[in-house]
TrEMBL record:
PANTHER family: ALCOHOL-SENSITIVE RING FINGER PROTEIN 1, RING-H2 FINGER PROTEIN ATL61-RELATED-RELATED
GO molecular function: zinc ion binding
SUPFAM superfamilies per UniProt: RING/U-box
Matching PROSITE patterns: ZF_RING_2
Signal peptide: 1-22
Domain RING-type per the UniProt entry, residue ranges: 77-119
This protein's record includes keyword Amino-acid biosynthesis: no
Keywords: Metal-binding, Signal, Zinc, Zinc-finger
Protein name, UniProt field: RING-type domain-containing protein
Length: 123
């Protein structure tokens, strides 16, 4: 038992020792300057800042219709599961999937811009 405690203590010292730095080895930021130019690192939200802003107007609008001129073979919106009615306004992603405009706007507000049906990335 004593051997296990000894081994555990040695392991803990080896793990924790590198994290303890004597104050004599710490340099203050103002004293530690070099001649390198300052570089602004990108923020965590850099993608959102440079990504193009997609609006719902970027996607074609259509009226939902049944029959041989059907807008889509799907009879309900995959987002809200509400049935399309004849004459409903729908919008189409580049992959061909159709959604209510309100449901599509919810997708556009998401960070990852992709079709919920096929995962097609459109931004």
């Amino acid at each position: 038992m004593a051997l296990i405690i000894y081994f555990f203590t040695i392991c803990m010292v080896m793990v924790l020792l590198p994290t303890v730095v004597p104050q004599s080895h710490v340099q203050n930021a103002p004293d530690h300057q070099d001649n390198a130019p300052a570089v602004d690192l990108p923020s965590q939200n850099a993608f959102e800042q440079i990504a193009p802003v997609l609006t719902i107007d970027a996607f074609p609008e259509d009226e939902y219709s049944y029959g041989e001129n059907a807008t889509t073979e799907v009879e309900e919106c995959p987002i809200c599961l509400g049935e399309y009615e004849e004459g409903d306004t729908v919008r189409k992603f580049p992959c061909g999937h159709v959604f209510h405009p309100e449901c599509m706007q919810n997708i556009l507000n998401c960070r990852l811009k992709k079709c919920p049906n096929c995962r097609f990335m459109f931004a």
